[in-house]
Every structure is written in C-alpha cells, then in structure tokens.
Amino acid sequence: MPHDKKRERTNKDISFFFFFFFSLLKCNYKKIFVNTYTLSNRAGGYIKNCTINNFEALAEHAVAQCYIKSTGAVEAIKKKVKANDEFAQVTITNCTQGITPLLGQQATIPAGSMQVFSFDVYSENPLQSSHTCVVGLYDSMEKLIDNITIQFTSYALQTDKVTYYYYYYYYSFISFSI
C-alpha cells in the first residue's frame, strides 16, 4: 500500500510539473517578439574598375564609369522606407580643386552580377591639371565596403585667338572710355 501512495504522489507531481512547464512556455511564447522591419540583407561587393577619360575643361565633360561586382549569395535590398532606398550606393568624393561635386547613385544589384554606374564629371578650371577622386561603395546599412582612388587629366580650354583678342580689346576699350 505505501508503494501505491508514493506512485500516486509522483504522478500528481509530474502532472503539476508539466502544467507549470507548459504554462511557462505559453507565457514565454507570448513574450517572444521579432521585429521584421529591422532585418536587412547585407551583401558584399567590390569596385572592379572605375575610369574617367581625359577631357577639355569647361568645354566638355567626362564620363566616369564604375563597375561594381556583387559577391553576395542573395539580392540584398535595404528596407523600403522610400522607393529609392536600395542596396548599393556609389559615391565619388574628395576630388581635387576644380571638379564639381558629384551626386551618389543607388541601385539593387542581383547576387553575383555586375552593375555599371555612370557619372558626368565637369571641371571648373580652364587650365590643364591632373585630378584625383575617391570612389566609395556602401552597402544597404550605409557601411563603406570598398574604395579606390582614380586619376585623370583635364586639358586646357582651347580658345580661338581672334575671339580672345576681340573680347580683350572690346572690354578694355569700354573700361577706359567710361
């Protein structure tokens, strides 16, 4: 008889334990919360090549072409706050004096593929000079992944000598006659 009573107590204790355990699981399940809006895919990438052709200052503009290779396994897209917020951002900054500032560009790059970014580069300096700019690649979390420095030359502005002398003498005549 004492053995049966002991067995009954054990069964009651076990049932109470399971009830208590499952009620804890139920409470903990309600407290588990995952915010899916903060999740984002970060894919790697690198700048394969970036070139700017030499050009004549003030008369022409150059086109900078940057080839970006995605090394991620999935297409990485930044969370959609605005329609423009996407994976890769390429910027050209820290250019030497005389180069107008350039706006960055954003694009979604599919996994393992290459994307070409094109920028129009203008020089404000009429004299021949060599320039450098820094090209930066940022991921969807706006973290710098890769950067390179590119070099190019803007040639002196070629002017017609007759037109130059005409303007020079015309404006000097007006300034002295007044």
Automatic annotation (TrEMBL):
GO terms for cellular component: plasma membrane. GO terms for biological process: single fertilization. Keywords: Cell membrane, Disulfide bond, Fertilization, Lipid-binding, Membrane, Signal, Transmembrane, Transmembrane helix. It is found in: Cell membrane. GO terms for molecular function: lipid binding. Residues 39-160 form the Generative cell specific-1/HAP2 domain. The keyword Amino-acid biosynthesis does not apply. The keyword Cell membrane applies. Pfam families: HAP2-GCS1. It comes from the Eukaryota. It is a single-pass type I membrane protein. Belongs to the HAP2/GCS1 family. This is Generative cell specific-1/HAP2 domain-containing protein. It comes from Reticulomyxa filosa.
